[in-house]
Amino acid sequence: MKNHPIYLFLKRPLIAGVVTFIILLIISQYIAYQKFIINENTQKKEINNQVNLIKEKLQGLVMYSYTATKTLAYNVERNGIPEDFDDVAKELLERNKYFDVVELVDGEGYITHVYPLKGNDVIGLNILKSDSASSGALATIKRKDFFIAGPVNLKQGGVGIISRQPIFIDGKFSGFSAVVTKLSTFFNDLNIGIDIDDRFKYQLSKVDFETGREEYFLENDVSTFKEYAVPIEMSAGEWKLYVIPAQQKFNTAIWFALFGFLISVLGSLGVWYFLGQSERLDKLINKKLLEQEAELKSIHEFTSKQIKKSESRLNKAQEIAKIGSWELDFKTKKLLWSKGMFRIFGKDFKKFEVSQEMFYNAIHPDDRNMVISAYNESVKNNTPYRINYRLVFNNGQVKYVDDQCETFYDEKQNPVKSIGIMQDVTDRKKIEEVLENSELLYRSLTSHAPVGIFHTDTQGACTYVNEEWMKYSGMNFDDAMGYGWLKALHPEDRERIENEWKAAVLKGGEFKTEMRFQDKKGKITFIEAKSIGLFDTNNNLYGYIGTATDITERINNQNELLNYKNNLEKLVDLRTEELNDGKEALLNLLEDLNLQSIELEKEKVKAQSADLMKSAFLATMSHELRTPMNSIIGFTGILLKEFAGPLNEEQKKQLSMVKASSEHLLRLINDVLDISKIEAGKLKVFHYPFNYLTTLEKTIDFLDPQASKKGLVLKTEISRMDITLNSDERRIEQVLLNLLSNAIKFSNKGTIKVKVDVEDDMLVTQVIDQGIGISKKNINKLFMPFIQLNGGLSRSHEGTGLGLAICKNLIEKLGGTIEVHSKVGEGSNFIFKLPIAEEFVD
């Protein structure tokens, strides 16, 4: 071998040196190149880590902004602008470190509420007319959904991002809830800034879809660094993030290249000069190679740790937000889930195998077709989608999720893969349902309250009135809001009531007064109004609630009683004057007879006065009793709804007994008042056209829960579907309520039927029950006042025995008749007839 020509050729010093130089140069430059690649990859990974961190924070900012503005908007839509806006805003700022300012904007675009106000003096600014803010505000209104505007030069100073949620009340745009994030706050959280991090230069921009123009948030000029732009897809449009090395680092691979070249030169010289020292040179090269290998291994371990740390942060963020992500590859048909998805579905990611079929089977059957259709339409039309639907699991558990998806396509517009984000919104859905049900229950209860009910804020501005209040005042709901309710007052009372109300609000005390409402037609209603403050558990005032009671009849009875008194004095004076003008002879002759006549006349006057005083007393005292009873019923109902604080079961039970007893006593008082008016001949009825079937339906709906509680069924048989009756709607409703209540009271099973027909211009209504029935000898006693057939201490049904007597008088007053057919044990049939078109004058 040593005699081989090639060996002999290479053994020459010059040839050996050149060959050694080439070999060493190739090896050293290859090592330098590998070092160069490693350094480049390290810098790219560092940039990518920064980009991913900022993207993650930015997505978090979007999520927090959406949640905060949506919550604030929902509160405003349901309850109006909160009186404790500063406290609510302060809590939002404390929970979300990215927010600097919380704002509310009204329907005309004016900023009405700002927190904190210090350094943010923007109240009164109209964002719809602002050059810098109008485009984002208009875009939010157009979308009718959450929108992020930016970059915006803030009036408070600096550049920021404004997140807005539109507020719609009854389908009408009513303003925005907004949070403002200064870019300085956002970047300081990331430890980004010249004073903190001089390794990179940052820029954030938003692309205008219509103009294609790129708007930058920071002042850094990045026009020559477009290759560093990283697109970020967001609901508010396409954003771009730039992370640019502040200066190009010197790649240490150059030193490796120079060092390798130097080694190659020295090595070749050494081989050339020390031909026999090859073994030493080999050891040197092996040593360098081992050092390079160790360094490469260290770099690889560091990079792996950084990647795992980033993945851990992302997984933690998804776990906190209950968010998971999924990806579907169209080529392999393989569905991939993040750990967040496994958490949502309650599966072990190490054991469970994901598939499309399993995913679709987990969707609630009622929502499955909707989800599949939405996904197919999205793929077909190349449009993202966002939907809410339900997941149902084997144990019966149901979860509500918010799912967003977008599909990506190749250059031939063939779908490549779909990527989606899913969030578990079950808790939010339950809260929304509870709030909605609570609001509906409260509105329903106050709508049927027998007194007017009103709410105000801490400044005394009206925020709610019920239907009874609107009936008294003749105003609609919107006109009564704020201080519009003052327009319902009689002009002579307006200044006095306004001053009394302002004084009560200023002192934060109880308000009680009497006043007059005058509607647009000039009708005057006398009102007794009361209100008290509403306090939370910390004894902080957050508004006022009050009642308004109609006392018109009481006032009229007082005036009528005064007139009777004056007329009686005039009558006595007149009689005295007539007697004095008579002849003295006749007086002497008939002195005894006149004395008796005078005594009889006095007794007659006393009897008449006593009768009038009895009727007036009954009317006055009934109203005096009915007014506090209405307040007791109203405020007991409010306590039961727990507006003033939670109640235990025993308190609820006792308050329910108080409310039921009060309502029963109020019905007795109303009956006594009506019968006293009837006996005094003062009962008035008013004729006007109304839909009889609507009144009947409303009465049946009101009594249906009472019938259902006893297992009874209320049915109707109506021959005509449009019956207009010219009569007194309130009195007819009173008759229907009394007859149906009796049918329910005296029936324990079966059906209560209401038949309505028209015969010879007469409206015929029959109330037929299957109750205990009435014997023939007792039928004539039915319509007598204060008579109950099952009397005595042992009777099982409470009442005054006035109801049917009042019904008979009311029907006859309205020009009709009432009769009854009944058999003991088989039930009763009450029939009343009323003229349809004829008008009776009281």
Provide an overview of this structure.
It is a single chain. With 842 residues, this protein is of the alpha+beta class. Among the domains are: 322-430, Beta-Lactamase (2-Layer Sandwich), CATH 3.30.450; 448-543, Beta-Lactamase, CATH 3.30.450.20; 554-678; 686-835, Heat Shock Protein 90 (2-Layer Sandwich), CATH 3.30.565.10. It contains 22 helices and 26 strands. The strands form 6 sheets. Strands 2-1-5-4-3 form a 5-stranded antiparallel beta sheet, with helices on both faces. Strand 3 (147-153) and strand 4 form a beta hairpin. It comes from Mariniflexile gromovii. Residues 576-615 form a coiled coil. InterPro entries: CHASE_dom, HATPase_C_sf, HATPase_dom, His_kinase_dom, HisK_dim/P_dom, HisK_dim/P_sf, PAC, PAS.
Share of helix among residues? Answer: 40-55%
- Please give the number of β-strands: 26
What is the residue-mean pLDDT, rounded to a whole number?
Answer: 77
How many helices in DSSP terms? 22
- The fourth-level CATH homologous superfamily of the domain at 686-835 is Histidine kinase-like ATPase, C-terminal domain
Q: Which strand order does the major sheet show?
A: 2-1-5-4-3
Q: What is the C-alpha radius of gyration, as a whole number of Å?
A: 45 Å
The 3D shape can be described as elongated
* Beta-strand content bin: 15-25%
What's the multimeric state? single chain
Distance between the termini: 144 Å
Q: Which CATH architecture of the domain at 686-835 is right?
A: 2-Layer Sandwich
What structural class should be given to the helix and strand makeup? alpha+beta
Largest sheet: 5 strands, antiparallel
The name CATH uses for the topology of the domain at 686-835 is: Heat Shock Protein 90
Poorly predicted spans = 791-796, 838-842
CATH top level assignment of the domain at 686-835? Alpha Beta
